[in-house]
């Protein structure tokens, strides 16, 4: 559960106790989202259900997670939905896998670092998607021959993504998508070239740049603060010929 008061936010399991600067808070075992609870000093907090954007702020990080704007592009561009199967590699914190799991997608995600993989498993529990998301420890490129497709979506955030893209037609369902994420355009180009050489269709690389608007008495303009660039997303689709 997410427990909130103003700019104070923390995760707390039902039945757990939390010390705060406003007193000690004991969360009942049968607590429901939307309930107001009080500390022993009679200070009120609201209990909320953890939602998608909260994952980005509250999951334990083992690296820089994919930004919500890029996750939104993956979901919107591929149309991945409940009942689909997704193969993911480069789990890291697991934000993308958790988002997909919350959509009802069956996700198998690979993380090379055993410690990172264990953190990701705990994060899936926190996100409430442990039943939908399986975190495997290993290198997807080394185990690709043992994977049992087909998958409706493959998402990659790894340095060796082009190697996997080259074999995506053996893993994807007809009409399925592969999406690779890279902070460097060289890797994005390599993925696009590998997709074309593999005979995949609708190959394109996109950069999502998002700017917040500032409104004040002088006028309105895009904010000059923040980072516009996050990474490059390369998409391709498996559309087998009927010939």
Explain what this protein looks like in three dimensions.
The chain has 243 residues and is of the alpha/beta class. The chain has 2 domains: 2-49, no CATH class; 54-237, Vaccinia Virus protein VP39 (Rossmann fold), CATH 3.40.50.150. It contains 7 helices and 15 strands. It has a 7-stranded mixed β-sheet with strand order 9-8-7-10-11-15-12, with helices on both faces.
Q: What's the topology here?
A:
Elements: E1 2-5, E2 8-11, E3 17-20, E4 23-26, E5 36-38, E6 44-48, H1 52-58, H2 68-78, E7 85-89, H3 95-102, E8 106-111, H4 114-127, E9 133-137, H5 140-143, E10 151-156, H6 161-165, E11 172-182, H7 185-197, E12 201-207, E13 213-216, E14 219-222, E15 232-237
Parallel strand pairs: 7-8, 7-10, 8-9, 10-11
Antiparallel strand pairs: 1-2, 1-6, 3-4, 5-6, 11-15, 12-15, 13-14
EC number: 2.1.1.219
Pfam family, one: GCD14
InterPro entries: SAM-dependent_MTases_sf, TRM61_C, tRNA_MeTrfase_Gcd14
Structural key phrases:
single chain, 243 residues, alpha/beta, Rossmann fold, 2 domains, 7-stranded mixed sheet, 4-stranded antiparallel sheet, 7 helices, 15 strands, globular, transferase
Compose a concise summary of this entry.
The protein has 243 residues and is an alpha/beta fold. 26% of the residues lie in helices and 32% in strands. The protein has helices at residues 52-58, 68-78, 95-102, 114-127, 140-143, 161-165, 185-197, and strands spanning 2-5, 8-11, 17-20, 23-26, 36-38, 44-48, 85-89, 106-111, 133-137, 151-156, 172-182, 201-207, 213-216, 219-222, 232-237.
């Amino acid at each position: 559960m997410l427990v909130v008061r103003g700019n104070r936010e923390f995760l707390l399991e039902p039945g757990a106790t939390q010390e705060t600067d406003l007193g000690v808070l004991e969360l009942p075992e049968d607590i429901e989202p939307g309930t107001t609870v009080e500390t022993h000093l009679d200070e009120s907090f609201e209990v909320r259900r953890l939602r998608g954007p909260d994952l980005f702020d509250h999951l334990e990080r083992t690296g820089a997670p994919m930004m919500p704007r890029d996750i939104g592009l993956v979901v919107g561009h591929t149309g991945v939905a409940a009942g689909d199967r997704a193969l993911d590699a480069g789990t890291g914190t697991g934000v993308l896998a958790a988002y997909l799991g919350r959509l009802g997608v069956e996700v198998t995600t690979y993380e090379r670092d055993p410690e990172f993989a264990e953190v990701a498993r705990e994060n899936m529990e926190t996100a409430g998607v442990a039943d939908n998301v399986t975190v495997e420890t290993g290198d997807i490129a080394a185990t690709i021959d043992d994977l049992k497709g087909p998958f409706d979506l493959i998402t990659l955030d790894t340095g060796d993504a082009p190697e996997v893209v080259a074999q995506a037609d053996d893993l994807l369902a007809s009409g399925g998508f592969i999406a690779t994420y890279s902070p460097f355009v060289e890797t994005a180009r390599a993925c696009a070239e590998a997709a074309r050489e593999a005979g995949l269709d609708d190959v394109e690389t996109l950069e999502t740049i998002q700017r917040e608007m500032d409104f004040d008495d002088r006028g309105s303009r895009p904010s000059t603060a923040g980072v516009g660039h996050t990474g490059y997303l390369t998409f391709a689709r498996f559309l087998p010929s009927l010939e």
